[in-house]
Amino acid sequence: MKIFNTGELIGKTSRLLRDNLSKHLIVSKVKITPEQWIILQILNNGSKNQKELSEITLKTKATINSLISYLLKSDYIIKTKSNVDKRNTEISISKKGLLLIKQSNKDALKSIKKATSGFSEKEIIALNNYLIRIQNNLLK
């Protein structure tokens, strides 16, 4: 019996999911990367500052800054001064960004459906629970 390397399987699966989403976005002529799409998805649920985006995505501040720069140039997001602390800026999704998310969510759904093809709803729930447990273990 062959023993599988769990880390390798998770890493490869992550890359395949990202690549598959990227292909769907290219075919649909959506000019964002999967990483930029994730930022827009997060902002679709409410404004965040750069530190919060960094913590949610587990990406460095420099990486987040790069992602935000492109999204700002493309008018997909808006930066405003925080109402709570004027030293901080809040990042929110723009109307153009909302339209892009609406369009690109169809691509993401295709990608997820392909990845989970043949899985029952119960298996998908179990898989999600396993992945959450792995994340929680690694965040300890």
Layout of secondary structure:
Layout: H1 6-27, H2 34-43, H3 50-57, H4 61-73, E1 77-81, E2 89-93, H5 95-115, H6 121-139
Antiparallel strand pairs: 1-2
Entry summary:
With 140 residues, the chain is mainly alpha-helical.
Name the CATH architecture.
Orthogonal Bundle
Instruction: Indicate the mean pLDDT.
Output: 90
Distance between the termini: 32 Å
Strand numbers in spatial order across the main sheet: 1-2
Please trace the helix and strand order, writing H or E for each element.
HHHHEEHH
Provide the descriptors you would attach to this structure in a database record.
140 residues, mainly alpha, Arc Repressor Mutant, subunit A, 6 helices, 2 strands, 7% strand
Notes on the structure:
This protein has 140 residues and is mostly helical. It has a single domain (6-139), classed as Winged helix-like DNA-binding domain superfamily/Winged helix DNA-binding domain (Arc Repressor Mutant, subunit A, Orthogonal Bundle), CATH 1.10.10. 66% of the residues lie in helices and 7% in strands. It has 6 helices and 2 strands. It has helices at residues 6-27, 34-43, 50-57, 61-73, 95-115, 121-139; strands spanning 77-81, 89-93. It has a two-stranded antiparallel ribbon with strand order 1-2. Strand 1 (77-81) and strand 2 (89-93) form a beta hairpin. Helix 1 (6-27) crosses helix 5 and helix 3 crosses helix 4. It starts with 5 loop residues before the first helix and ends with a helix. The model has no long low-confidence stretch (mean pLDDT 90).
